[in-house]
Amino acid sequence: MDIQLKRGLLDVSVLAAIKNEESYGYKIIKDMAPFVELSESTLYTILKRLEAADMLTVRTAEHAGRLRKYYRITDAGRRRIAEFEEDWNEIDRIYQFITREGTR
Question: How many Å apart are CA 5 and CA 24, to the nearest integer?
Answer without folding.
Answer: 25
